[in-house]
Design brief:
Blueprint lengths: L5 H6 L2 H10 L3 E5 H10 L2 H4 L9 E5 L5 H11 L9 E7 L3 E6 L8 E5 H5 L13 E10 L6 E4 L4 E5 L8 E3 L1
Parallel strand pairs: 1-2, 2-3
Antiparallel strand pairs: 3-4, 4-6, 5-6, 6-9, 7-8
């Protein structure tokens, strides 16, 4: 297992993907911005020697996951062997536990286009078109065993909804 200082990654994002390629790593990940930075900072010519076909779990979390980042990364690094199914959107709380929800592995990320107006009313209404009244959300998988997700209205400090544990197959969506 290799650890890089964050500044090393920011200075040269290709270092991350080159390391995965050289070591044939199967699990690695980072926040959404890391995938987007790789797309923006690694020119097509520098992608030619990369072999990302060993990458089975590309976890992404720690901040809001953007569907556009996933799409751009798959488009840019698919020719290097990266598979969309490797993406593993997940959610965790550094102050409480490493991972609250994620998975299932080797399943493409769940991406929903929903009505922004309905979302403002705390409702999820899936829509087909992409417009000014839509918002794209990336699912963060299932609740991990032994965890319960509770949504709290922070203004009223009141529980709004509590989800069951993973044993009953609940889904956590971001």
């Amino acid at each position: 297992m290799r650890y890089w200082r964050p500044v090393a990654f920011l200075q040269r994002p290709a270092l991350w993907l080159e390391t995965i390629s050289k070591t044939q790593a199967t699990v690695s990940g980072g926040p959404d911005f890391a995938y987007d930075l790789c797309v923006r900072k690694i020119p097509a010519a520098d992608r030619d020697g990369l072999d990302l076909s060993s990458w089975k779990v590309a976890f992404t979390g720690a901040e809001r996951i953007q569907a556009a980042s996933i799409e751009r990364f798959v488009e840019a690094f698919g020719p290097c062997g990266f598979r969309r199914e490797a993406f593993f959107p997940c959610y965790g709380l550094a102050e409480a536990t490493l991972m609250v929800s994620g998975g299932p592995r080797q399943t493409p990320p769940t991406i929903l286009r929903v009505s922004a107006d309905a979302l403002a009313r705390h409702q999820v209404q899936e829509i087909g078109s992409n417009g000014s009244s839509s918002r794209t959300l990336v699912g963060c998988g299932q609740t991990m065993a032994g965890h319960t997700i509770t949504i709290v209205d922070r203004k009223r400090v009141k529980r709004v909804q509590t989800g069951p544990s993973a044993r009953s197959g609940s889904k956590a969506q971001a």
